[in-house]
Specification:
Alpha-Beta Plaits; single chain
C-alpha cells in the first residue's frame, strides 16, 4: 500500500557499563547514514528511563527497497557486528505504520 510509512526500529540491550559506547556508536552510524544513504529520514535513539542499558532506535524510510539497500551495505553489516559485541541483545525490525494519533504536546 503506497500511502503507508515504513519505519525501521531497533531494540538494543547494552552489556552493563557499555551504554555510553552504544550511544556513541549509534550516533556515529546514524550521522553517516543520514549523509550517505538515500531514502532515510530522521533517526532517533531513546534510552529507557528505568533500564539505562535498554535503547530503542527508529526512523522513517522512503521505501522498503531503500531500507533493504541500507541493510545490505557493508557499513551496516560492520556496524551490526560491532554492536553485537557491545550488546547483550539487538533486535532489528521493519514496520509499516498503520495508525496515528496526534496530541497537542
Amino acid at each position: 500500500m503506497a500511502d503507508r510509512q515504513l519505519w525501521t526500529l531497533g531494540i538494543w540491550i547494552a552489556h552493563p557499563g557499555r551504554a555510553e559506547e552504544l550511544r556513541d556508536a549509534w550516533q556515529t552510524f546514524a550521522t553517516w547514514t543520514a549523509a550517505n544513504v538515500a531514502g532515510c529520514g530522521q533517526a532517533y535513539l531513546l534510552q529507557d528511563a528505568q533500564d539505562r542499558d535498554r535503547f530503542i532506535s527508529f526512523g522513517p524510510w522512503a521505501s522498503e527497497s531503500a531500507a533493504a539497500a541500507w541493510r545490505d551495505r557493508r557499513e551496516f553489516k560492520d556496524f551490526v557486528a560491532r554492536v553485537r559485541e557491545i550488546c547483550v541483545e539487538f533486535q532489528p525490525n521493519t514496520l509499516w505504520q498503520v495508525g496515528e494519533a496526534k496530541g497537542s504536546a
